[in-house]
Amino acid sequence: MLLAELVVRHTRRHMPTRRVAVGSSYLPMTGPAHGAALLGAVVAEHRHALDDDQLDALARLLDDARDGIDIPRIALRYRLQTDVHGLDRSRHRIVGEDGVLVVELDVHGAPVPQIIGAVMAAAALPRAQRVEALRVIGRASRRHGFALAAGVTVRRVAGDHVVVPAASGIPWQPGAPAEETPWVGVAPEERWAKEVLGLRAGTEVERDDVNRRFRRMLREAHPDHGGTVDGAGDRIAELTEARRILLDLVASAPATAHG
To answer: By the 8 A CB rule, do 210 and 218 touch?
Structure first.
């Protein structure tokens, strides 16, 4: 049974652009307040990634969020927006399974966008619920400021990969990132470019395939062919850069192969 859910849309982990939006949210704040628990868990899981400047920026963002957040804007070095075109998806939720509460956190994406997404979702709640949600987020943003309730466990997921669950009733300890075995040995720039053009980790890069994918995705992104105006420029720039990186990779392959 789904008890709470937050879907954060964000640029992929290795992409040079930094954008974040809320895809959807279901955050009940009455009764057991599973929505508040989920927001706290998301922030507690990822707070270790914030440097001192970002922690200060988060405190300011939480203050701003008390009256709602104007979007678009820049926060914690990310662009906050409503457009989700071309963005990756992280899905966090609380579910009931055979009488057990499970906090399921998607850990495949970069951590900072997950925190921003939690604040954005809280800021969109009605005022009374918003204040409580932001209070929980503020507590979770402090080291050891958030603990699991007794009987609640955590399942960390990345695609089909499940990380060992955390014990309940103890101060929050972030889990190790899920192992991304298919991408081991792939340079971050190459990985980013492949992900942008929809190529799997082990796929051989071929010039014709790269150009075909680029042309198709370019048409899909262009406003004249149904793409959204907001964010189209960023998406086209990403596609163009990804194509350049992979074509350079193809061009250098023969020399590499022959030493």
So the answer is: no
